[in-house]
Amino acid sequence: MTTPEHFRLRVENRIAHVTLDRPERKNPLTFESYAALRDWFRALPYDETIDVVVFGSSGGNFCSGGDVHDIIGPLVGRDMKGLLAFTRMTGDLVKAMLACTKPIVAAVDGICVGAGAIVAMASDLRLGTPEAKTAFLFTRVGLAGCDMGACAMLPRLIGQGRAAELLYTGRVMTAEEGASWGFFNRLVGAADLDAEALALAARIAAGPTFAHMMTKTQLNQEWSMGLEQAIESEAQAQAICMQTEDFARAYRAFVAKQKPAFEGN
Hints:
The protein is an alpha/beta fold. It is built from eleven helices and nine strands. The protein has helices at residues 31-43, 68-76, 80-99, 115-122, 150-158, 160-169, 175-181, 193-205, 209-221, 227-241, 245-255, and strands at residues 8-12, 15-19, 52-55, 104-108, 111-113, 125-128, 133-135, 173-174, 186-187. The protein is globular, with a radius of gyration of 19 Å.
């Protein structure tokens, strides 16, 4: 996988650490970084050197959303065809994150608003700091709250009423609200955020990564299934996982009263 131009990427111990890299502007997204992230996540299923992604913060902030000058200004002059091309591209980033087959941990510090809040929402797990300020502020710029899957995904995380309040008003969800409502898995100090996110990612990477892929697939596919379909789909997924060497390794380790050493196959 080539080094990206429009975001920062570091891969160590099968964990990819991704950050936006414009801390002086609180890490906004641009046309280029949207497309680069979309393409990177689309290619991720085929990269066998990465098992988990940490999408981190930089300079005390996660992401300030679409850049006012680089994105919002030019959009005002686009025709409908051009606008739809842009909104479909932003939605394709979320689709790529959901379909990438690798767990994503968002490490959120400071500002996390607009499309930045969507990136955090589309991650599988979220750690936040007490300073995290998350807002879906699309209505504050004259747009609908239904952006990049927010109306489908946010209610599933925090509940319909709470999601409706945030999407209608665009107000900030405090870190404490985010933790108590289930948006954040937990809060950690800013100084510990990267270490805690990487430790969580390392714990996941040390697990049965093929089974994690199946888990992420089922979590996403079962949104549109009835209960009977979901139970059958999980039966098939689990039967597939029972054919893996990791399942046999776990059994042998259990019998030997040892901790299994998973290899992802």
